[in-house]
Each structure stands twice: as C-alpha cells, then as structure tokens.
Design goal:
alpha+beta, single chain
Length: 87
C-alpha cells in the first residue's frame, strides 16, 4: 500500500491511499485523527470527473518531505489507522 499526500484550502491535510486495482476516497486529518473524506474531494484530487475542479475544490500535491514536515509540526501520524477507511 502506498500513500500520496495533498493539502486543500477546504479540507486541510489529505492522505490518499492507493492499492493495485482499487480506488479509495481520500482520508482527511480532522479532529486529531484520519477520517474518510467526501467523494468530490477524491474527484478533485484524482481528476476522475469530467471537470476535476467542478466542485470548487483545489488540492495541491505534497511530496513526502513536505508531508513529513507538516505532520511533525502538527503531531500527525502519517501512516496511522483510519477506522472509517474502506476495507
């Protein structure tokens, strides 16, 4: 399993899990834990829709070093479990 990290004005720090042959909703850091985000954020991040930004969401991809710095500053476990994550 691999992760991509993003930052969004509307949702803050986002973690997108990827696994071969599967699509995931993004996970958003909210209330000191990872929670599964709404599908339109996933669409904006991944460009799944006809117009990736049609919902007004804009997410910026962060490289691993930027994500690690942000996580360290904010007490976030980059690879922590998300009880809301799809199985």
């Amino acid at each position: 399993m691999s992760y991509a990290f993003w930052f969004s004005d509307a949702h803050g720090f986002i973690r997108q899990r990827s696994a071969p042959g599967r699509l995931w909703h993004p996970e958003v850091w909210n209330g000191q834990r990872w929670v599964t985000g709404s599908p339109y954020v996933f669409d904006a991040i991944s460009g799944m829709g006809e117009d990736a930004w049609s919902c007004g969401e804009h997410a910026i991809a962060w490289d691993a070093a930027t994500a690690e710095r942000y996580a360290a500053e904010h007490g976030i476990d980059l690879f922590g479990a998300n009880p809301d994550a799809p199985k």
